[in-house]
Each structure stands twice: as C-alpha cells, then as structure tokens.
Batch of 2 targets.
Target 1
Amino acid sequence: MKITKIETHVCNARMRNWIFVKVLTDQPGLHGWGEGTLEWHTRSVVGAIEDLSPLLIGEDPTRVEHLWQSMYRQHFWHGNGPVRGTAISAIDLALWDIIGKFYNTPCHKLWGGPVRDYIRTYCHLGGGKMEDFYETNPADAKRFADLAQKAVAEGYTAFKTMAVPETMPLEGLKPIKYAAKCVEAMRLAVGDDIDIMVDCHARPSPQMGLMFAKAVDPYGLYWFEEPCWPESVEGMADIARAVTTPIATGERLITSHQVRPFLEKRACSVIQTDITHTGGLTESRKIAALCDAYRVALAPHNPQGPVSTAASLELGFASPSYIICESVHLDVPWRSDVVSEGFVIEKKGRIVRPSTRPGLGIEINEAEVKKHPFEQELLQRSWGADGSVTDW
Ligand SMILES: [Mg+2]
C-alpha cells in the first residue's frame, strides 16, 4: 500500500478554520482523515502540509512511527514549533485512521483495547459560543453563575470558564476579587458535585497567577489552567506548590520534549496536550506514557473540530492517565452536518462510550465542508489600560 495524495480541506467554523487533511492511498476507497486546526495560522498550516507531502507520497501509510520520524527530523528543521507540529499532527491522525481501517478495528483496540467503559466530557460556559466563553465580563459574577447552571441543566458534570481577567504584570486587588467572586458564585450555583475549571489563557504574570490561584483555592476547582506563560516552567511550579488546586497546562507544548520539564519540575497536575499540535496521536501516546510514569492526569485540549474530538476519545480509551475530554457543541449549528461520528455523547452526564467503527470512526462530508470556505478568523487582540499589549 502506498500514499498517493494529501489534500487539505478548510472549513470556516466562525472562531476558527477547521483544517481537515485527507490522506489517500492506492487501495480503492481507503483514505484517512486528520485535522490540524491552528487558529490565525490557517494559511501557514496548509502550506506546511504541502511542504511535508514530498516526504510521504509513495510511502507505506502503515509505517506511521517511521513516517513521523521522517516528518519531524528530515529536511534539517525539526517539527517542534506550532505550525509544523500541527501539520505533522494532521497527517499523523490520518495515518492512524488508515491503519485502523486497513485492519478493520478502532484505533484504541490497536493500542491495547479499552482501559475504561466511558469517557466524561466537559463543556465551555456557553457550549463553545465564543461570546459567552470569552466575553462574559468578570465583573458580572451572576452571569457566570447563570451560565454554569445552564451547563449543568444540559447534562454536564464539568465545565470550564474564563473567570480571570486580563491584567498587567502587576495589578491591585480588583481583578483578584473579580475572579474570586465569579468562582464563588459558580460554586454556590452548582454545588460541590460539579467540577469547575478556570482557564487563565496564560494571561497573568507568574506573580499575578499566584495571587489568582490563592484567591480561588478555597472553592475546590477541578483544575486552574495556564496561570502563567508556559515559557515560565519555574513560575508555574511555584504556583503549583503554593496551592492545593491542581494546575493544568500543556496545550501550547509541542512534542514530549517540551512536556518533560513540567513533569520533572512538578509544575502541574494535569497535562493538556493538544493532539492536533503536539505531533498527533503518535506523540500524544508517548506523552500519555510519561503522564503515567509521573502519575499526572492527561486531559487533552480539544476546542477544535470533529476529527480532533474523535482522536482525543480514541486516545482516552487506551490511556490510563486520561481523565476527561474537552468538547464544544454550540460553536456552529451545522457541526453535525460536516461529520459522521462513531460515538454518541449521552445527554445524561455527557459521557461517551467506545466507538466500534474502524480507525477514528469518522467520515467528513466534503460537500458540506465546501459550503463554509476559508475566512479570516476574527482578530482577538488585547491591550492594557495604557495601550500596551496583553495576552488574549
Ligand atoms: Mg486553555
């Protein structure tokens, strides 16, 4: 069997352009689907996939580890940045889909079979509607509480919010009190049985992250995410040591090499590897094994499109350290038209049982994708009160 062609299919889903990759083979009807969605870098990733293609055309798609090594190491520049890492990931996912289809078995069975009966999913406040998740004013604690109750009413037992405002490297008490009030309001609204996560988007400096983490520590968060830049592993480790709340990070770390220091320095309790950026399922399985070795939880970052979700679930059914799958369901109303999925998210508890379809268990509807061509993503630029650049 040989790879004959690699296609990219871009589908604008409002906040992001989903980049689907289709790897075709010389076996009639046998192809694989991957995804490499990287917000605000759509043209770069499409170009990077084109640049990688000469390494793959004519090769046996079932030699996925060998091809991964080739994509990562050949032509001198290693694939350890977000653009090339995403391009490698997209192709890698499609190769695993092909192997599963070739052997007529779901990917998680290729990796040793299911290690759990079901996977829990969590939502964003607002279900992925970007205004609710990103633009709810941290001064409006009641709005956070109302959206939290809505998520629970929809069957979720866990949800994520952005209750930490953008700040300068140092600011006084006001933003800290906003964050604590929002988290308190959500906890009072949903009770102790629901898991609440707060994503800081790496907005705070390490010191501000520490102050926010201490302020929300009494409310028993499931995790506190990216409380400072991932570039500051020491800052993250200081925060992790200062609070009881589990610290989560990893969505911007490309390959196991960038994950390793966070484990060695005990800088986090949850690794949120992104399967579509870090090097695909091949590299994510290595990161999952590292998480097992350090007894750190794995909860992949997954706000993207449907191939990413299918890949995350397949990984979760074969990875002991995996705890929960991120999901968005209200980003665009036509999401289910674009994909046929091998799993069902059960309304009660929003859990998913293993797919029985081969590979990743999904098929993309190319005609539906064509209805939503590339559009420039909405710009999300953030500025401090003095006009200086801040993180979004
Ligand atoms: Mg995040």
Target 2
Amino acid sequence: MALTSGKQILEEAKKQGYAVGAYNVNNMEQIQAVVSAARATQSPVIIQTSIGALKYSDCTYLEYLIKAAIAKNQDIPIAVHLDHGNSLDFVVRAIELGFSSVMIDGSLMEDGKTASTYEYNVRITRSVVEYAHARGVSVEGEIGTIGGSEDSVGSEKISLTDPEEAKKFIDDTGVDFLAIAIGTSHGAYKFKGSINLAFDVLENIKNIIDIPIVLHGASSVPVELVSEINKHGGKMSSGATGIPTSSIQKAIKLGVSKINVDTDSRLAITATVRRILMEHPDKFDPRDYLGPARTALTNLIITKMQDFKTAGHAKDYVSKSLDDMKKLY
Ligand SMILES: [Zn+2]
C-alpha cells in the first residue's frame, strides 16, 4: 500500500524530527524524478500538483501518470497532495482523481490573490475538512499570507502568522497540518533586500500547536542553476534569490515537517534543457534533453531528501489505507 495519507507521512516526520518535501509536478519526467529520488534515498514523499498543473494536463493525464508512479513503488509511502486548492469544488475533483491529501488556501479569496478574512478562511477550510475527512483524506490549511507568486497563486504582501490565531484556526477547523507565513515567498524572485525569516514566530507557533507545520516559498534558487540558465541564453535577473539550505534546516529543527519544492525543480530542468540545446544545436529528439533534465531533477531532489533528513525513513512504518484513516477521524 503506497498511497498514503499526508497526515500519516507528516505525523511520522514530526515525531522523528525530519521534514518531507512536497515536490510539484506537471509532467511524466518530473513524476519519475520524484519517485526515483525517493527510491534511491528510501524516503517517504509527497507528490504535489497545483490546480494550474492539473488543468494543463487535462487532469486525467496527471492522474494516470501519478497512479503509474504509485503502482511501481508500492514499498514507499507516497502522498498525492493538491497544492493551494481554492474551492470545495476543486478539492472534490482532486479527491475523485485519487488524491490522498489536499490543501485549501482560505488565506486568499478564490481568485488566489486577494487576502481573505479569518471568518472566510474558517468557513471554507471547515467545509473542506468535513468533506475530506469523511473520505480519509488529510487537509492542509493556511493562516497568514505567504508572499510572491507562483502558478498564479500568491499575494503581493506577506503577513506573518499570529501564533494565537494559528492555534484558534486549528481548533475552529480541524486541519491536519498548517502552512504558516514566516517571511518566505513563492517563486524565484523572493526578496528586495536581505532574507529575514521570523524564526522567533516559528518557535512561538511550534510551542502552542501540535500539528505538523508546512513551509511554502522556501526554494533555495541555487546560484549555479541561475548562472547555468543565463550562460545558455537565459535572462534571469540578479534579483533571483532563495532561502539558504542552512535556514531551511534551522526551520526543520524548529518544527517544520513539510517543505514545498517547485521553483528549484523548474530551474534544474530549464538549466539542463538550455545547456543541451545550446551545446548540441543539431539535436531535436525531446528525449535528448528531457532525459538529462529528468536526471538533473532526480539529483536535485536526492540532495533535498538528504538535506531535509527524509532519507532512510521509507520503511519506518506501514502505510494506512484511506479507509483506515477515515476511521481515525
Ligand atoms: Zn504555496
């Protein structure tokens, strides 16, 4: 049984003090890279897709690609998670596609941009929790707003999570894990000035809540990938900056259990494709550049699994079925 609830994967991680990466995918090579890396490092893993990625693939194509990855990796705990769900309707759709975990981001209105009220957030999150838990599916909520923009989701401004409000939100909604805002930001262009994560806020949150904490917008934006892209005809500006691995590891020590990874994967793929097409202008078989891009992404994810200390934990526990999870709610 490889399809695993996000709740089970993250509660195990929280117990042992490591974090699990949630890797965004939108095509076959990305999915293969995620599960190859999980297999190579024996890591539990979360395969994650945005609404944009599902729509891009007409939903069904991604559904079956992910099902193939699960079928071939029955001995690794894999959660399939919807990133930034914006309505109960879309959550229902994701659960019908076989997702074992969903995020409802009620910190923003349905447009994915405008900040909502606390009451709106509780109302929509509560409705998703009721629907999902009745099917054994776990739910991630968000309180506070993460800055930046990715896949047309994101707010202009960051507003840090208030620890007391986070605690109340969990009581009011029953979410299984919670995305918080401590100064991270979506995308490759995160910060105007220097990076300043509010570790004190994280610590305060950790001290008063007891569900797993999720970090969005925490890509590293490795300089070597940005310069590889620019060396081969790309034009990413020098404003592309990320969160250093040491800060991520500090956040894990302070209680973060799920880390979303999307931008770094995009950079790894683009850097490889650009380099190969530039170095070999005669090539025109997509496998000649998508194959090496898949390898580069696999290696990037292997490093993340080691950095997040996920490696080696795939056999720590037996995955519960969603039916088992249903009974626990
Ligand atoms: Zn996010």
